[in-house]
Amino acid sequence: MIKSDRFIHRVGLKFDEVTPGHSRLSLETQDHHKNGTGVVHGGAIFTLADTAMGAALVPMLEQGHICATVEIKIGYFKPVFGGELVCEAVVVNKGKNLASLEATIRHGDVLVSKASGTFSIFKRKPDSTLATPAAST
User: Fold this and answer.
1) Is 128 buried (19+), middle (13-18) or exposed (0-12) by CB count in 10 A?
2) What residues pair up with 26 in beta bridges, in sequence order?
3) Which parts of the chain sit beneath pLDDT 50?
4) Residues sharing a CB contact under 8 Å with residue 67, sequence separation 6 or more, in sequence order
5) Residue 137 β-bridge partners
6) pLDDT tens profile 79-109
7) Which residues pair with 100 in a beta bridge?
8) DSSP symbols for 101-121
9) Taking the domain 6-123, which CATH number applies?
10) 3-state SS, residue 30
């Protein structure tokens, strides 16, 4: 499910390892990942952490269930100017409706970012959508 996500492939994330409760993803940064100062954009690092945490959780879900990010707290410790970023994510706790996860992002041996997140777990109804059309006035 996550591996087929078009956004993830557009960003350039690579799934190196995914097992129940753990994942390792990588991103070979390119110029389009950088902000105006030449530093890898925090949003690219956030996407790497968010996706890695989701990838660690998905194999633990019951058939027909999906997950969605509720919140993520992320700290950026070092600027990254290029090269490969590797993110390791683990499920810290999984309940019936919520899961807590952690992710670390490294550039080589250097810890550049750390994130913690909460994900909602729910059964998706095939005929439901998130938004309903606004009533005409």
Assistant:
1) exposed
2) 14, 86
3) 132-137
4) 54, 57, 58, 61, 99, 119, 120, 121, 122
5) none
6) 999 999 999 999 999 999 999 999 999 999 9
7) 93, 118
8) EEEEEEETTEEEEEEEEEEEE
9) 3.10.129.10
10) coil
